[in-house]
Design brief:
Strand order of the largest sheet: 13-18-17-16-14-15
Largest sheet: 6 strands, mixed
Number of helices: 23
Bound molecules: 2-acetamido-2-deoxy-beta-D-glucopyranose
Mean pLDDT: 91
CATH superfamily of one domain: Glycoside hydrolase family 3 C-terminal domain
Low-confidence stretches: 1-58
Distance between the termini: 68 Å
Radius of gyration: 27 Å
Shape: globular
């Protein structure tokens, strides 16, 4: 039966903030948490009676327009033969102001007189259907769901078709659970904020530090979740969050509820906004979530320039904008942005917010209207955006079983094929950082026994990271390795905090006896999590000491396996010849241990690459987490952030990742000169700007792309997959990154074989840079494209088109 997990309330940290609020609902003073609790409880009860009443869980009660509701089912908003816009308008026209404001919040109230049920908007599916969020519960026919690797791991595959495939599987399981009454249809995933600072506790949830990779990830995962066929119809509605410049949770007394991110126009345009733009314009996402923090003094959820201007205006979001949980309360209570709660409610709705995760808008919006701060028509505008998404999901089309995905049920969750994809995703995301000797792959015949050591060597839930659900089942690293060979297991430390050396001697003894030693070390949610940023980059507690002592004593090679979301400064292991191999596995999901073993024993040839820079601890010396600047500033010793702007020493660079084979690139084709058509209205004299940077908006960008042809040769004796990364360097300038990724392509090449890859490059999108005023420009002159060590020069030249007569 459905039950409320004890960890559940603890887990969605956003609400921990809600707990501190006291809100008046009706005449009774009630804590929002209590309201929330009552709701979840009654929801559970409803499911309970329902499951008992009907044999088939698939027969979920319709949300609205039930065929059994003869009074309402003929109303225009229920009529599938009418245009969605007309149905939405009809429905809004029937609602009272009181009913409307109760639809502005995540636990939207029922409208019984119109046959409309309550709806919980908050479900999550970051890397599998999750129960972080009251819309989803596990139990009964749905004891768990496929738990894919954490996003930072999946990102390391650099395989966009894998990202879309995972989205498809997750939305199959989400629809199946919705049909069975266990989940919603609106998922507040993915998290596509830039992994700006290596300490960020939520960096694990993101696709890393590169804006282009994050943008491709966003569009691919969203397409997978929302489904491509069926025109405007949605399989489930995804949500790209948290807009924008949100990447600090809690650092030295500064928390996300109070943080004012000071962001330059340049960084906003060429870093923080890039993945969101791609999510909306290419992924066609059905929702965007605004963040807790302020950007340049304005809370993002009350900033009309960001919400109405950029997301809905410039990018043309077809969907709804939702607040992070209790963001509207936060901008009033914590940030004191407005003097009254009614003004906070009015500002948020006027800025373009359509839905509040939290009770605030339900409580204060009627008063805001009565005080004249907000017009009812503005509320109607917000509701039109949310209800349109519900209509696109088929929620007003009557019986859920009649929906194209209405037949999905329990057998479609945790199916063997889905669990196999979780294993495959983990394999593809594992990054081989070091392999001297080479000591890997191990041999099950020669390496017997293998010592398996470390606080993460036999973990399960650690492998699924945060924003997870309940997994179908787990294979721990120890279990995975034991399937290949005989093992001796010693934890070495009681947990990742590794506060003492009480268990060291057992670990050392094991390593003395074994032919090889695998040490599974790293972090977990006690070190990096939501609302928990790290203070440094070293392994916690005495982990490093354990690794060094075991290495000194071991008979065979040491293989260090690191489980972590963020980067770890393992310089000591990189330079220790006894530690011959290092693997980074991120948080590899429910099948993580099996994938690790497949890589260790060479059943799978690793092809993952780091989606973020692995900095040295010293990098943090002069780097407050609160400094948002991406670019370095030598005058104040500011190092800059990410491979695009930081040029100092690193442990392992962005894009690093080895294989059991070796690949060679040759650029075999690509233009040397690209002519950019420029509108004659803006530029009549081509010599005047031959060395200038022209605005992207002045160029004829449509179809302006070319293909770079690259041969990838596998020179070794093992089949392998290779992530081809193509970078560009613009002409020297004060404001451009010295290089940035412009394309990537994953290719598999058999041993001794060769594959030709055509990489498509859009000139305006990929070869442009952003000036200090935040304007995207294409620099004329000599650019270079790089693949590995090879360089392909390319000259961009403007070509002025004749004056356009208007
Ligand atoms: C074009 O610009 C160049 C450089 O600014 C200038 O020398 C030249 O006279 C201009 N030609 C015309 C036709 O305006
Ligand atoms: C990318 O992932 C998909 C889905 O798992 C897989 O079929 C494909 O082989 C992968 N591509 C490469 C080149 O490894």
């Amino acid at each position: 039966m459905t039950r409320l997990h004890k960890t559940h309330l603890y887990k969605h940290t956003p609400l921990s903030h809600v707990y501190s609020h006291t809100t008046r609902i009706g005449s009774k003073k009630m804590r929002p948490s209590a309201i929330f609790f009552c709701f979840v409880f009654s929801y559970s009860l409803r499911l309970l009676t329902f499951t008992i009443g009907e044999a088939e869980a698939e027969a979920r009660r319709p949300f609205a327009c039930s065929s059994r509701d003869s009074a309402n089912k003929r109303l225009p908003f229920c009529r599938t033969d009418l245009a969605t816009a007309d149905r939405v308008k009809d429905l809004i026209g029937r609602l009272t102001l009181q009913e409307k404001v109760r639809l502005l919040v995540n636990n939207a109230a029922a409208v019984p007189r119109l046959g409309i049920d309550r709806y919980e908007w908050w479900s999550e599916a970051l890397h599998g259907v999750s129960n972080v969020g009251p819309g989803t519960t596990f139990g009964g026919e749905f004891p768990g769901a496929t738990s894919f690797p954490q996003v930072i791991t999946t990102a390391a595959s650099f395989n966009a078709s894998l990202w879309e495939e995972i989205g498809k599987v997750v939305s199959d399981e989400a629809r199946a659970m919705y049909n069975g009454g266990a989940a919603g249809l609106t998922y507040w995933s993915p998290n596509i904020n830039i992994f700006r600072d290596p300490r960020w506790g939520r960096g694990q949830e993101t696709p890393g530090e590169d804006p282009m990779v994050a943008g491709v990830y966003a569009a691919s995962y969203v397409k997978g979740l929302q489904g491509t066929g069926g025109g405007d119809r949605l399989k489930v509605a995804a949500c790209c969050k948290h807009y924008t410049a949100y990447d600090l949770d809690k650092w030295r007394g500064v928390d996300r509820f109070h943080f004012n991110a000071k962001v330059s126009k340049q960084d906003l345009e060429d870093t923080f906004d890039v993945p969101f733009k791609s999510c909306v314009m290419e992924g066609k996402v059905a929702s965007v979530m605004c963040s807790y923090n302020q950007v340049n003094g304005i809370p993002t959820c009350a900033d009309p320039k960001l919400l109405k201007g950029t997301v809905r205006g410039a990018w043309r979001l077809n969907g709804y904008i939702v607040s992070d949980c209790d963001s509207v309360g936060v901008l009033y209570d914590s940030q004191h942005y407005t003097s009254t709660p009614e003004a906070a409610a009015a500002d948020a709705v006027k800025a373009g917010l359509d839905l509040d995760c939290g009770p605030f808008l339900a409580v204060h919006t009627v008063n805001a209207v009565q005080k004249g701060l907000l017009h009812e028509a503005e509320i109607d505008g917000a509701l039109a955006n949310t209800i349109t998404v519900q209509m696109r999901l088929g929620m007003f089309d009557g019986e859920p079983s009649a929906h194209p995905f209405g037949k999905l049920g329990p057998k479609d969750v945790c199916s063997p094929a889905h669990q196999e994809l979780a294993l495959e995703a983990a394999r593809q995301g594992i990054v081989l950082l070091k392999n001297e000797g080479p000591s890997l792959p191990l041999s099950a015949r020669r390496h017997r026994p293998i010592a398996v050591i470390g606080p993460n060597s036999d973990v399960t839930v650690t492998m699924i990271g945060n924003y997870a659900g309940v997994a179908c089942g787990y294979t721990s690293p120890l279990q995975g390795i034991t399937k290949y060979t005989r093992t001796i297991h010693q934890p070495g430390c009681a947990d990742v905090a590794c506060a003492n050396d009480a268990l060291f001697s057992g670990a050392i003894r094991a390593a003395r006896q074994a032919d090889a030693t695998v040490m599974v070390m790293g972090l977990d949610q006690s070190i990096e999590a939501e609302f928990r940023d790290r203070t440094g980059l070293m392994l916690p507690g005495r982990q490093q000491e354990l690794v060094s002592k075991v290495a000194a004593a071991s008979k065979g090679p040491i293989i260090l396996v690191l489980m972590s979301g963020g980067p770890v400064d393992v310089s000591f292991a990189k330079s220790n010849p006894k530690i011959q191999s290092i693997l980074w596995v991120g948080y590899p999901g429910q099948a993580g241990g099996a994938a690790i073993a497949d890589v260790l024993f060479g059943t799978h040839n690793p092809g993952g690459k780091l989606p973020m820079t692995w900095y040295k601890q010293e990098y943090l010396n002069n780097l407050p987490m609160t400094s948002m600047d991406m670019r370095s500033n030598p005058s104040r010793n500011y190092p800059g952030r990410s491979y695009r702007f930081y040029k100092g020493p690193v442990v392992y660079p962005f894009g690093h990742g080895l294989s059991y084979t070796s690949f060679m690139h040759t650029i075999v084709g690509g233009p040397k000169v690209v002519s950019i058509p420029v509108d004659g209205r803006h530029h009549s004299n081509s010599t005047a700007f031959s060395s200038k940077a022209i605005r992207v908006t002045h160029a004829r960008c449509n179809g302006l792309s070319f293909s770079l042809s690259v041969d990838v040769k596998n020179k070794g004796s093992k089949d392998g997959s290779h992530a081809l990364l193509v970078y560009s360097s613009p002409p020297e300038s004060l404001w451009a990154p010295s290089k940035q990724l412009v394309a990537f392509e994953k290719v598999s090449v058999p041993a001794g074989g060769q594959r030709r890859v055509a990489v498509n490059i859009h000139v305006c999108k990929h070869l442009s840079v952003v000036d200090k005023a935040g304007i995207r420009r294409i620099q004329m002159g000599e650019h270079a494209l790089h693949v590995g060590d090879i360089r392909h020069p390319i000259s961009l030249q403007a070509h002025v088109l004749g004056m356009v007569k208007s």
